[in-house]
Design a protein that fits this description.
Elements (H helix, E strand, L loop, with lengths): L8 E2 L6 H6 L9 E2 L4 E2 L2 E2 L16 E13 L5 E13 L3 E5 L6 H9 L6 E6 L2 E2 L7 E4 L11 H5 L1 H5 L4 H14 L15 H13 L5 E5 L7 H18 L2 E6 L2 H7 L2 E5 L6 E6 L12 H14 L6
Parallel strand pairs: 7-12, 7-13, 10-11, 11-12
Antiparallel strand pairs: 1-2, 3-4, 5-6, 5-8, 8-9, 13-14
């Protein structure tokens, strides 16, 4: 499924020193030019100034090579979040990053999003270095991050508004996406009128509005009750099956990773390193949580991250 509402320009937002220094590409109108890969199903070449180095792994959409990130505290201490991450993700994969709290899962996701710069190594999308956030990566946060003063429709269409898409096309996009996430009649409502599960579905719709190549999800269901979480997991799989977006999903929930993923990447305790890379067979769907296969995978992953017992 394609959403033909993109433009090859986006307004420039003030950001971190990394974003400002590494994303200087602008057109004659002062707008930032971003390396969008496809618009309405047609390929658009990366803008002049994009760092195209050639693919590290031919055919891979996301490529990490010996990737590391170090945080610096106010006291001058160095904290290594992740180290020596080498990973290739193909288009259409649903990849879960699984590991204990503090192992660098979100750090890795934020580097792919362009929010953080790697301290070492290479990180590329479609063969180009990731230098800053761009519409080819949609992000869904744990805390929804919806604008409370905007309607649901306006929240979903906000990225398109910033990209200069017309009001008519923004409305059409929001309507289509609300249908996709199963909330066709709430466009005029405000976030405070929605349940937690509804807010997260709106956040997913907003992330899809720019038709990104990659959907990045940072523990989006962690704050929800068990019944709502399982319902949204099923709906997310339906959206993935219909759109075939590449999904990178952070979780510390073993059962959630097995239920959702076509591939599970397990990180060690900090500094996070890859200790398991498990590809799950697609004929193992739908995945019944009480099945012997599910429980064997659960025990294997629990051992890999150093926990015992069940959730």
């Amino acid at each position: 499924m394609k959403f033909p509402f993109l433009t090859a320009k986006t307004k420039d937002f003030p950001g971190s020193e990394f974003e400002r220094s590494n994303c200087p590409r602008r057109d004659n109108e002062g707008q930032a030019i971003v390396p969008i890969r496809s618009v309405g199903g047609k390929r658009i070449e990366a803008a002049e100034g994009t760092l195209h180095r050639g693919s590290l792994d031919a055919g891979a959409l996301i490529e990490c090579r010996e990737l590391a990130h170090v945080y610096h505290t106010r006291l001058g201490e160095e904290i290594a979040a992740v180290r020596d991450i080498t990973l290739s993700i193909d288009a259409g994969e649903f990849v879960c990053l699984l590991g204990p709290s503090g192992c660098g899962k979100t750090t890795l996701l934020n580097m792919v999003a362009g929010f953080l710069a790697p301290s070492a190594g290479k990180l590329r999308l479609n063969g180009d270095d990731i230098r800053c956030p761009a519409p080819d990566r949609g992000v869904v946060f744990q805390d929804y991050s919806l604008f409370p003063w905007l309607t649901v429709e306006a929240n979903i269409a906000y990225g398109l508004l910033m990209a200069g898409v017309s009001a008519k096309r923004r409305k059409a996009a929001a309507t289509e996406l609300l249908e996709l996430v199963g909330l066709p009649h709430i466009g005029a409502q405000y976030p405070f009128e929605l349940s937690g599960g509804m807010k997260q579905r709106v956040a997913i719709a907003r992330a899809l509005a720019t038709d990104p190549a990659v959907l990045l999800m940072d523990e989006p269901f962690a704050a929800l009750d068990a019944m709502t979480r399982e319902s949204l997991q099923r709906q997310l799989l339906d959206i993935w099956a219909r759109t075939r977006k590449t999904v990178l999903f952070v979780t510390h929930n073993i059962g959630e990773a097995i239920f959702l993923a076509s591939r599970v990447i397990v990180l060690s305790a900090r500094p996070g390193r890859i200790v398991e890379d498990i590809r799950l067979p697609e004929n193992f769907r739908p995945r019944k949580r009480t099945s012997p296969e599910f429980n064997r995978l659960y025990e294997r992953l629990a051992k890999a991250i150093g926990v015992e017992g069940t959730e």
